[in-house]
Amino acid sequence: MHPIRFDYTNVMSPAVGVHGLGEKELLSLAEPSARALAAVLARRTKDLRWLDLPYQDALRREILDYAASVRGRFENVCVLGIGGSALGNTALHSALDDPYHDLAPKAGRPRLFVLDNIDPEWMASFLANVDPAKTVFNVVSKSGTTAETMSQFLILRAELVRRLGEKGHRENLVITTDESKGVLREIVRRDGYRSFCVPDGVGGRFSVLSEVGLVSAALVGIDIEALHAGAAAMDQRCRTSKLLENPALLHAALQYGLHTWRGLSMSVTFAYSHRLRNVADWYAQLLAESLGKKLSRAGQTVHRGPTPIRAVGVTDQHSQVQLYAEGPFDKWFTLLAVEEPTAEVTIPRAYPDLEAVAYLGGRTLGQLFHAEREGTRIALTEAGRPNAQFVLQRIDAHAVGQLIYLLELSVAVMGEHYDVDAFDQPGVEAGKIAAYALMGRAGYEQRRAEIEARTRGPKRIL
Ligand code: PA5
Asked: Which of 79, 118, 146 to mutate to test the pocket of ligand 1 (most atoms within 8 A of CB)?
């Protein structure tokens, strides 16, 4: 059980000069950070129930019992969901399953597909290539009304009924939705599907450690107990209100300080780990949807929020780093680093007379990966670009649980600093309502008329 290390040396001005933070500046956020933490933690038993998820032993048992009851029955698990009801599932799968798990799944550990888009080409291809009868579909929607997820559900349900009959198809569906609200819960009641409840106080993007992320994780054999244990360890570590001892507080303060005082409005999460690339993706939603807000909590128009960018090392060294090192001073970087890879590959010796390849022989890919990561840190630092890194000793469920909890708490604290409601998403709702209107849903006629009136008039199309 190794605690995640947070190295923020290169965020400070002695390392990166005027674009970094001074000691006094950072410490000026000590008091606000302590207040922010207290405000967030005070809501633990009220509307921020996600803070308490790591301690939900009965929930874990229920999920593990369900997973055990269907073990060996399915070749595939397929999540139907979107946004906070899918990104965490993908992140856990990529981080904790073998990168080629889906090509050659081990016995008792089915493949996992997460269909988080409704592009018909993707769905048609899925239907053509994956046998629904050998698949358990985990339909995940907290609201139980999201058009994308509901349409996927209708398509796959019809396919399952066609293949397995009205009675037989039920075993291939497991629903995760609100306890009482939403049409999905009504469908569960009518058709008697196996279901899990997303508790109140667990919003979409903060739900990966709930039924939302854990059902599919348990079905493919991820150690959800270790995941929760890691999250609980991070929760305990982050109870201190001392800024310099609390990694979530520190990360939130750096984000806020660099954005507010240095104008670094873009936050790049640079995963130096193929497995953690989708954790960066998940974090992008967490940051964007939580902090990107028009209104302050008092209702003033503020248009706040950092812009998340995700990058993967070393791949994006050969794609983005030119911009990062020499482009505008509008970004700061958080690297996700792993100290000990779970596997190693040695580079064979060859061509001793060709120095440009000879020096690689006998070294490992892990050494090269490490050197490339350090090289990027050095280059960013020398170019005056603030960069921090979270260092995981190795990738396992405990470490990933720590990282997820740390980032969730950090974003909740950022909500206090930025003075926005980190837990709503009115901008997303607006798009959903417009789509309902365009699809002719009853009750949305007025909105449809408004949209049609707005889009009348001359078009400018080349
Ligand atoms: O974080 C959020 O709240 C959103 O991204 C939702 O997860 C997303 O819109 C899907 O919503 P639902 O789970 O209600 O289908």
From this structure: 146
- The pTM (predicted TM-score) of the whole model is 0.96
Tokens of 33: 């950070």
pLDDT for 1 equals 77
Among protein residues, the one with the nearest Cα to ligand 1's atom 8 is 83
Per-residue burial over 438-458, b if 16 or more Cβ lie within 10 Å, else e, is eeeeeebeebbeeeeeeeeee
Residues whose CB is less than 8 angstroms from the CB of residue 286 and which lie 6 or more positions away in sequence, other chains included: 205, 206, 407, 408, 411
Please confirm, yes or no, whether 372 is among the known catalytic residues: no
Cβ of 149 closer than 6 Å to ligand 1, yes or no, is yes
Atom of ligand 1 nearest to the CA of 149: 15
460 C-alpha to center of ligand 1: Å?
34
What pLDDT, on a 0 to 100 scale, did the predictor assign at position 69?
A: 96
Closest CA to 413 of 27, 40, 28: 40
pLDDT of residue 460: 87
Residue 274 known to be catalytic: no
Residues of the chain with pLDDT under 50: none
From atom 13 of ligand 1, which residue's Cα is the shortest distance away?
141
Query: Number of C-alpha atoms within 13 angstroms, CB side, residue 27?
Result: 3
Q: Which one of 148, 159, 211, 289 is the catalytic residue? A: 289
Residue 282 forms beta bridges with which residues? none
For position 456, what pLDDT does the model report?
A: 83
How many Cβ atoms sit within 10 Å of the Cβ of residue 311? 21
Could you tell me if the CB of 20 is within 6 A of ligand 1? no
Q: What six digits make up the tokens of 54?
A: 């790591």
Centre of ligand 1 to C-alpha 357, Å, is: 49
- The Cα–Cα gap between 320 and 43 comes to 39
Q: How far apart are CA 333 and CA 269, in angstroms?
A: 6
CB 247 within 8 A of CB 389: no
Contacts 24+ apart (CB under 8 A), 359-366: 366/341
Tell whether ligand 1 has an atom less than 6 A from the beta carbon of residue 26: no
In this predicted structure, what is the pLDDT of residue 461?
87
Domains of the chain by range and CATH? Answer: 5-42+229-418 (3.40.50.10490), 49-222 (3.40.50.10490)
Kindly give the number of the ligand 1 atom that is closest to the alpha carbon of 205.
1
User: Any catalytic annotation for residue 432?
Assistant: yes
> Is the distance from CB of 9 to CB of 15 less than 8 angstroms?
yes
Q: Give the span between the Cα atoms of 88 and 248, in whole angstroms.
A: 19
CB 54 within 8 Å of CB 405: yes
The best mutation among 48, 143, 285 to test binding of ligand 1, ranked by most ligand atoms within 8 Å of the C-beta, falls on 143
